[in-house]
Task: structure prediction
Amino acid sequence: MSAREKSVVESVQTGMFIGGQWRGSSTGARLDVEDPSTGEVLTTVADASIEDGRAALDAAVAAGPSWAATPPRDRGEILRRAFELITERKDDLALLMTLEMGKPLKESLTEITYGAEFFRWFAEESVRIAGRWQVAPNGATRLLTMKQPVGPCLMITPWNFPLAMGTRKIGPAIAAGCTMVMKPASQTPLTMFFLTQILTECGLPDGVLNVVTTSTTGAVMEPLIRDPRLRKLTFTGSTPVGRSLVEQSAQGLLRVSMELGGNAPFLVFEDADLDRAVDGAMLAKMRNIGEACTAANRFIVHESVAAEFSACLTERMAALKVGRGTEDGVDVGPLIDGKARDKVAELVQDALDHGAKVRTGGSARSGKGYYYDPTVLSDVPADARINHEEVFGPVAPIATSATDDEAIAMANDTEHGLVACAFSVGLSRSMSVAERLETGMVAINQGIVSNPAAPFGGVKASGFGREGGAEGINEYLETKYVGLAL
Ligand code: NAP
Result:
């Protein structure tokens, strides 16, 4: 680690944050945080026990009533100040994020802009929470509808976007007047601790946000999910873990939001602007090293343009610079760990066994860190595993389609339904395709759809609930109806 890297890591608190206090775990246990570009330990953080988890929920429950009664403008101002401080400290935060997650610094900075925007957006939403006044159809009574905070929330986030996956939950919860226990991914807790320090500095009262990190995640989370004082569970992560958390939450009939895995199709029709499609493909595939739930997982290209599209994409992918995310000019950092790299290698090998061809890449790098070369595969048959599982890495598998109907059938042939990208210059074809795709989001002629002002979320096995947009705050609000006889 360079002196600057060391000083940024050392500037971050590494305890749990409970009731406004930084503290170690009740057992004294610590958890290693690694740099995936070297496999070396960056630092250690507190490893929470079941008791620590419960203490975090105790603090959230205790802070609930006074926080719910805090004026919306005050809640919004805290978010607004935090937006400004994150932006001011973006260079330190980007370095920290790159060190623990691996993505290149420029990608960390992009995530910081995106993540901070959720605070600005929800600062603005906090003062727009409104109800309704109606005259009953028979004219005899009045129907008043009000919105109130859901109550204590449990938030569980993944490692791939350590800031944005948190701010997209914390932002609306603060705006709505909810208190929370946040559990960031154990591989990338430092970004969340950095954010917690900022929120504290911005005046967030004790107990509103409590953060625990643990290596025994299931054992520490399950008692919280089953605790009758918890009112909401919001989870971003893999579909299998999401399914088991939905089961656990059934007992307490919790409000639940699930942002789960994806298997995004990227469709290129014969009338697409190919330069734009290749630019979009690079973004859709390579943002975050391919480790995004929204990452294009399958390219479905009309047979008349497949050769040209594949050649251009191959050229662009082969030109990417792979290396440590802190180095100048690096486009592609390491994958999060050895398991993730092995999974990518396994899916590529399976595709090759099924008859796919390597256009570029196709191998893991030896030596320190978990690197996999940017890869393009063509002639990928439908039954290859890569068409049905998230590759979560820098691999673009290309298949061809002959008609729109075939392309849409291929796109919808998955249990997932988070996002799809489609490229066509025809407006009516684009709209018809958007309507027929079984996903929560569709990007037309663009490689990225995420926007804090829009509702992010999936259908089918990609989950339910929406984050961001006008919809985002509703996930943290209950509707109460009051009937009033005059
Ligand atoms: P993951 O293994 O499901 O982990 C996500 C979070 O769940 C982590 O904080 C993890 O804690 C925690 N967790 C794991 N097992 C748990 C259990 N039994 N009980 C409670 N919590 C548990 O997923 P991941 O590998 O970190 O993230 C990648 C997945 O997230 C991909 O499938 C990706 O598509 C999805 N994702 C979805 C979205 C979206 O918005 N739809 C966004 C980003 C990522 P530990 O770290 O301690 O294991």
